[in-house]
């Protein structure tokens, strides 16, 4: 677990960025408290484009004893996400005093903005829901880093539902996994060695679920047999706020475009399952669909496609 110092830094940093009262809702796409939640109003900018960017970039100042693994987990990131935006930083001994960039801003994937949305290439889960505040109801989105299927066990796309919830689940190993010979017993009871962790959301897609893990460093990686893994502390949060019947949209969008105010952004992730034949044409098509192509600098688009580090990059014309 991340040390207590990192936990309190996380709390202090989050609170320092919140220009609102406790649990209150601020303006469009703003942080709510220290919960990792954002208010999201599907409003349109002055030129009619849907604003779909949440969060604000943050930095963390390294102190003695910190590792990128601990920092990543303290902020609910996979370590690969943090490494990607901090190239050249030693993940085990980052320099004391170094400012570690935290990728706490996202272009939301194309979706209905309902229930759970999982975007495979960015290894991230979004949960959209309504929340009562002192100003009435607000549309909220929470975001979590996840682990997904290996190349030989790719997580499938599609639209599903949460059909049940289990606390302290028993894992009955499917025959397709059992024949690998990696597990000594066909039935794994609840406990620290259970890959499902303490909480599981069952999906309408047979044999698949959203659950915890017995190995936290699997989060943010392709590590599973297709299921969706979260940090133990994150699946516990999700378990208690997601009701049965919640829609689940598993999508594949390594390239996302969006707007914030008058600016246009692109966010690019590695094509982890190798499904995008022409990334540049994919980006152009997305910009055309949004009516944004005339507003962008194509050289900036190409640079973002080359870097593909998961950070939203401004591509607007100057």
How would you concisely characterize the structure shown here?
This protein is α+β, with helices and mostly antiparallel strands and 318 residues long. The chain has helices at residues 4-16, 68-74, 79-84, 175-178, 232-241, 279-289, 298-307; strands at 31-32, 37-39, 53-55, 58-61, 99-102, 105-107, 115-119, 124-133, 136-145, 148-149, 158-167, 171-172, 187-188, 199-203, 209-211, 222-224, 228-229, 247-251, 255-260, 263-268, 313-314.
Q: Any idea what the CATH superfamily of the largest domain is called?
A: L,D-transpeptidase catalytic domain-like
CATH architecture of the largest domain: Beta Barrel
Reading side by side through the largest sheet, how are the strands ordered? 1-2-9-8-7-18-11-14-15-17
H/I helix tally = 7
Helical coverage, percent range: 10-25%
Share of β-strand residues: 25-35%
The stretches of 5 or more residues where confidence is low (pLDDT under 50) are 12-35, 44-49
Task: Provide the gyration radius in Å.
Answer: 20 Å
Number of structural units classed as domains: 3
Overall description:
This protein is 19% helix and 29% strand. By secondary structure, it is α+β, with helices and mostly antiparallel strands. The chain has three domains: 4-107, LysM domain (Membrane-bound Lytic Murein Transglycosylase D, Chain A, Roll); 146-251, L,D-transpeptidase catalytic domain-like (Beta Barrel), CATH 2.40.440.10; 262-314, no CATH class. A ten-stranded mixed sheet has the order 1-2-9-8-7-18-11-14-15-17, with helices on one face. Strands 19-20-21 form a three-stranded antiparallel sheet. The longest helix has 13 residues, at 4-16. The model is unreliable at 12-35 and 44-49 (pLDDT under 50).
């Amino acid at each position: 677990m991340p040390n207590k110092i990192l936990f309190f830094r996380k709390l202090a940093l989050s609170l320092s960025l919140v220009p609102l009262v406790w649990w209150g809702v601020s303006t469009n796409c703003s942080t709510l408290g220290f919960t990792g939640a954002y208010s999201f109003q599907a409003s349109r900018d002055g030129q009619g484009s849907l604003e779909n960017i949440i969060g604000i970039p943050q930095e963390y100042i390294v102190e003695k004893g910190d590792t990128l693994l601990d920092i990543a987990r303290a902020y609910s990131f996979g370590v690969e996400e943090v490494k990607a935006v901090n190239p050249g930083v030693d993940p085990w001994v980052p320099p004391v005093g170094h400012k570690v960039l935290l990728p706490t801003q996202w272009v939301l994937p194309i979706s209905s903005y309902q229930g759970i949305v999982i975007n495979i290439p960015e290894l991230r889960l979004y949960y959209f829901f309504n929340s009562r505040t002192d100003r009435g109801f607000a549309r909220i989105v929470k975001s979590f880093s996840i682990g997904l299927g290996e190349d030989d066990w790719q997580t499938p796309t599609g639209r599903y539902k949460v059909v049940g919830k289990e606390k302290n689940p028993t894992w009955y190993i499917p025959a397709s996994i059992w024949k690998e010979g990696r597990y000594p017993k066909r039935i794994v009871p609840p406990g620290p060695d259970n890959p499902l962790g303490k909480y599981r959301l069952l999906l309408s897609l047979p044999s698949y679920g959203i659950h915890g893990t017995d190995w936290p460093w699997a989060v943010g990686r392709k590590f599973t047999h297709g299921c969706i893994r979260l940090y133990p502390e994150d699946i516990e949060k999700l378990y208690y706020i997601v009701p049965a019947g919640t829609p689940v949209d598993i999508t594949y969008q390594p390239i996302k475009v969006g707007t914030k105010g008058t600016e246009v952004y692109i966010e690019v992730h590695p094509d982890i399952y190798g499904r995008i034949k022409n990334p540049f044409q994919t980006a152009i098509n997305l910009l055309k669909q949004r009516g944004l192509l005339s507003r962008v600098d194509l050289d900036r688009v190409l640079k973002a496609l080359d870097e593909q580090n998961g950070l939203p990059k401004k591509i607007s014309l100057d």
